[in-house]
């Protein structure tokens, strides 16, 4: 290990120790609060201006995440492990939302102001036709799994599961019919038709990752990439929510008797790009809550249209996430999560064949060398696994939250498996 690597690791350990000390101090405060019998509210405060009749309003919401993260990466081929750490604003989101003319007509503008980045996340208007029928038009998360419909602000660990970039629903422009996406009733539904083009190149890009292709990012306002050709995608989410369960947050912050939610999601793309898009995704899921404990499970199936051969649709990958946490002393939470993806042989071979075709067809030596570099790992990844253990302290309910988590990532490869370690500490402010 180099002197520089040792210094990075030492600095990382100091930061971890400092944040753990802060966690212990907050834990002591939590114990005192619990002993005094004084609970705290887990509802975030609202900053709102409204007309006297309440028909028109505007609300300001803010979410900021300041994070330190360290990674010990296995570079393979017998090379020394690479320790890196960094401090960053992981997210800095500003939301303007409210109603206009009538409470039934609502709107939202959602921007990401992370330093060096300006990104449009949400931009939509919605109208309530009936208690069981609401229309939303614009850019929003597609309703593929309740796990992804919910906000990053309420995750019991610092980040989404490792399977989410592969399968998770992402924002698209489209039309959604639902009966309460933000506050779903006992029988919940969301159904929408969308452009088929992710507005952000962050999630639902498992096919693009497998083919080592870079999808466009139309939402990046500082350097917007033109969207690829539109191709209609139908997305449906159905769920049954028992016992008054609050599915907006996975953690059981409110406590109470046994409650559960079971659901299923499906996404079908009419004309997918075989190297960027899934042709179809399916995902059953379940959420259980009781007495401060929650358990969540989502299983994914991803199908693709083969880019070589007969172009038929086939199962290309599967994955899932299993998560649980326990809230105690009204302020503290311990959490555990396992997430995984597996890429099937036919998809790996298809991706490798496509890469070889592109490399062989390129006549310019420099361009060919660039393609060889781009596709050097294509077809080698078999599966990925991530196991994380986390600890959260709710300093001011869900408005101010301190999080620490760490664990391992295992990359199964056709040449040799690789094992990474990671640790993250984060402070989150949200209202």
Descriptive notes:
With 431 residues, the chain is an alpha+beta fold. The chain has one domain: Porin. 17% of the residues lie in helices and 48% in strands. The chain contains 6 helices and 17 strands. Helix 5 runs antiparallel to helix 6. The chain is globular, with a radius of gyration of 23 Å.
Give me the strand/helix succession. Answer: HEEEEEEHHEEHEEEEEEHHEEE
Q: Can you tell me the CATH superfamily?
A: Porin
Mean pLDDT: 90
- Judging by the overall fold, what is the CATH architecture? Beta Barrel
**Number of helical segments?**
6
User: Outline, from the CA principal axes?
Assistant: globular
CATH C-level name? Mainly Beta
Detail the topology: elements first, then pairings.
Layout: H1 3-35, E1 47-50, E2 57-73, E3 82-100, E4 102-112, E5 119-130, E6 133-141, H2 146-149, H3 164-167, E7 171-178, E8 187-194, H4 206-210, E9 233-242, E10 259-269, E11 280-290, E12 293-305, E13 313-328, E14 332-343, H5 345-361, H6 365-374, E15 381-398, E16 400-413, E17 418-430
Antiparallel strand pairs: 1-2, 2-3, 2-17, 3-4, 4-5, 5-6, 6-7, 7-8, 8-9, 9-10, 10-11, 11-12, 12-13, 13-14, 14-15, 15-16, 16-17
Short overview:
With 431 residues, this protein is an alpha+beta fold.
What keywords describe this structure?
single chain, 431 residues, alpha+beta, Porin, 16-stranded antiparallel barrel, 6 helices, 17% helix
